[in-house]
Specification:
The structure holds two protein chains of two kinds. Chain A is an alpha/beta fold. Chain A contains ten helices and 26 strands. By secondary structure, chain B is mainly β. The chains are: A alpha/beta, B mainly beta.
Chain lengths: 401, 103
């Protein structure tokens, strides 16, 4: 029976399956997932409770059944034929589809040095169990990569009194997505917590109990974790002839180069109004693209235009970023009781905001900033900088205008 | 029903919320745009995040982590991923003092 088929049962694929029902689709919905579990959330993987890696399900088995979603777990797709509109499953089944959604996510980049196979990834529940089953107070862990995942893992391990070395090829951490001001603050906090950083160096070799850096430094390590980023999983898309670049290329409606195939989440590179394609790796992007794709699969023609937003928790600090801060933007700082905010203006228009503070204390400010960004306003920088000016008031003024 | 003092109304921003811990439990107390007060369980039903850190607009509170939303007057879950309603508790203001019934 043909129907909607979703390849990938992570946050995006699972959300899309339910969103198809919410959009009124009554036909067959099949969700294909390679992992042997029910769909689970990834953010809790680093939040160890009673020394156990959490398995927080995105939905219960009963919810899938109630929605009439057929979930094929532990199942991969060996071939996608866009002309015949079929997928060949590892279970041996040939599945026809009316519309297909690729939510294949991303996979960790692999190190290329000698001994690379000794480094563990940190992406799946199995990865998290492998790492946390091997750490204990006093042990040494070398983390390769000072991006968000590496830094978050470092903070979790320091809280467990594990010695942590972070090795980064760039001259400083968090250089990709985090505004420099907050990257510096997080770096300083990690240093205070005892994380040892090794910048401007790569890894020459990983031994059984050590890491050799490119400058000859030898670090002892009971465990090595590779956190050098991810790459979009588009093997299937490429093999089937879909257009790809840094991800599976889609138009603004998340439709790939094949008319009945859509893509969403970490694997999707979405066409931008100003040209080019952008791919995001965040929890909310995965969910929101899934919802847009699902509605478009059942006949809508919505363009995906959500403002990027992500958070990162390190120690007791919470970082939130809305929009895409760029070095060329005018930045405006504001202090808050819970921490510090920075707004970013492009030719006077508010385009991004970031905040770093204790816990989730700045979340409400970033959410308001996101709504102000969506309203396309050009606020007075002095008003943004003044903690006495309530962002909610600015929002209401913008909406009333 | 036991009424407990939860501080002064003036300590809560209009269209805002505060966290209130009592008896080993945590709650969120809201001041609506019309100065009415409400009390709900303090943690999001999707993941245990303090709702008092979330944005309050009109009579809705949004979880600061996953953007689930609730009507804090009724506790009704309004937006995924929150799908389980919040428990609510009676709240009132007496001479500028916020009191909640947690029994």
């Amino acid at each position: 029976m043909n129907g909607m088929v979703i390849i990938g049962a992570g946050e995006s694929g699972t959300r899309a399956a339910f969103a198809l029902r919410e959009a009124g689709y009554c036909g067959a919905v099949t969700l294909v997932g390679a992992e042997p579990h029910l769909p689970y959330e990834r953010p809790p993987l680093s939040k160890i409770v009673d020394d156990t890696v959490q398995m927080k399900l995105i939905c219960a088995k009963e919810a899938l059944e109630a929605a009439g979603i057929t979930y094929l777990k532990g199942c991969s797709v060996s071939k996608l034929d866009p002309v015949a509109a079929t997928v060949s499953l590892s279970h041996g089944q040939l599945l026809g589809y009316e519309k297909l959604l690729l939510t294949t996510g991303a996979r960790p980049r692999r190190l290329a040095c000698a001994g690379a196979e000794r480094a563990l990834d940190f992406r799946t529940h199995a990865d998290a169990e492998a790492i946390f089953s091997k750490v204990a107070p006093g042990r040494r862990v070398a983390i390769i990569g000072a991006g968000l995942i590496g830094m978050e893992l470092a903070s979790v391990l320091r809280a467990k009194d594990v010695a942590v070395d972070v090795i980064e090829a760039a001259p400083k951490p968090l250089g990709r997505a985090v505004p420099a001001r907050f990257a510096d603050k997080l770096h300083a906090r990690h240093a205070t917590e005892g994380v040892r950083f090794h910048f401007d160096r790569s890894v020459a070799e990983i031994g059984n109990d050590s890491v050799v850096l490119s400058d000859g430094t030898i670090l002892s390590a009971d465990l090595v974790v590779s956190a050098i980023g991810v790459q979009p999983e588009m093997t299937l898309a490429e093999a089937s002839g879909l257009a790809t670049g840094n991800g599976i290329l889609t138009d603004a409606c998340l439709r790939t180069s094949a008319p009945n195939i859509f893509a969403a989440g970490d694997c999707a590179a979405v066409a931008q109004a100003g040209g080019g394609h952008i791919r995001f790796e965040s929890w909310r992007n995965a969910r929101m693209q899934a919802e847009t794709a699902a509605r478009n699969m059942v006949g809508a023609a919505e363009t995906f235009a959500a403002i990027p937003w992500f958070w990162s928790d390190q120690y007791d600090l919470g970082l939130q970023v809305a929009g895409q801060p760029l070095p060329g933007h005018q930045s405006v700082r504001r202090s808050a009781a819970e921490g510090e905010l920075e707004f970013y203006l492009d030719d006077g228009q508010l385009v991004a905001a970031a905040g770093l503070g204790i816990g989730n204390g700045l979340a409400k400010h970033i959410k308001l900033a996101e709504m102000l960004i969506a309203a396309c306003i050009s606020p007075e920088p002095a008003a943004l900088a003044d903690p006495g000016v309530n962002l909610k008031t600015l929002l209401k003024s913008a909406r009333a205008a | 029903m036991t009424w407990v003092s939860a501080g002064r109304l003036d300590d809560i921003e209009q269209e805002g919320a505060i966290r209130f811990d009592h008896g080993g439990r945590t709650y969120a107390i809201y001041r609506g745009p019309d100065d009415s007060v409400y009390c709900t369980a303090g943690l999001c039903t999707h993941e245990a995040i303090h709702l008092a850190d979330g944005l309050v607009l009109d009579f809705e509170v949004e979880c600061p982590k996953h953007s689930g939303a609730f009507d804090y007057r009724t506790g009704e879950a309004l937006r995924l991923p929150a799908c389980e309603n919040l428990k609510t508790y009676p709240a009132e203001v007496v001479d500028g003092e916020v009191r909640v019934a947690l029994g």
